Amino acid sequence: MPLEPWKTLRTRLLLDRSPWLRLLADDVQLPDGRVVNDYLRLESPDYVVIVPVDESARIGLIRSYKRGPDRIDLQPPAGLLEPGETVQAAAERELREEAGCVAATWTDLGAYVVGGNLGGGWAHLFLASGCRPAGPPDSGDLEEQEIVWVSVEDARRLYLNAQAFGQLSTVAAIGLALARLPG
Amino acid sequence: MPLEPWKTLRTRLLLDRSPWLRLLADDVQLPDGRVVNDYLRLESPDYVVIVPVDESARIGLIRSYKRGPDRIDLQPPAGLLEPGETVQAAAERELREEAGCVAATWTDLGAYVVGGNLGGGWAHLFLASGCRPAGPPDSGDLEEQEIVWVSVEDARRLYLNAQAFGQLSTVAAIGLALARLPG
User: Fold this and answer.
1) Distance from B55 to chain A by nearest Cα, in Å?
2) Strand-pair partners of A114
3) Staple A42 to which of A120, B83, B100, B116, CB 3.0 to 4.6 Å?
């Protein structure tokens, strides 16, 4: 039997904290006819995650306190799309703001939804190669942050250390980038 | 200057849809003394994602409609922790229920929070090696689903195809598993 999507019968807004999030409850009909009420759905902005590689084959990572994992964490430059902004423009802006770089070549690593059931924003992942300095970083974020540049070998070691990274989008992006890099 | 965590001054509950989620608003103090009000925080259950490899070196993936990406998607066996359940017990249970397997060897691939800012549950990722059939799958999930077993080579091809997977936890888990498998 071919798999079929669910059908949304009606939607209620439970909470609106735009632009950060909206929480909705859907009544959905399954392919076998059953109706499930109040299936929760989170709407939150899409975001970009960029793994920057410079001309010395070093990978740029941001070190900062992150509220989600509640720890000082390492992650690639990342940020929410601004209203009306394209995904590519957001990626270039965040790379410039957080790493102080422009890239020679962009590779799309795909877009992935954050929550398999609940939904939420999509993470748009990129590899940015041939990065060159283009001025001092200026993230505008609440977080104090610093950038560290590590060799591909060190990035691979961090990636395989189950403790080094605290965020799902970090291991997703770093893994996809490493799979495309030599060494 | 060393990086410091933020301090939580007070917390308000905005919405309680336990056991699926709770949404909170924190007033937080940054290391420079500034106070930010209403920083949103999502609480949702932790979950496990298991990449199963059988004795013929094939990787097991579940094909089903997923509400988050709103598409028929491929993903490793996965599921929420039940109340009081350990992470390891949840992983073994989901592998048995969704893939109909027991594993000879478990490798912890780390735990990662879903949202860097908003928080949410932690995804506990595993590689389950030497999987053997232990009875028919019985997921108990709302989704109709089927399991497909693919070679490591095919899994790598899917992983590098930016369209094949729709969920962040899928590419995170598959990437970490592939990095530990020969070939």
Assistant:
1) 24
2) none
3) A120
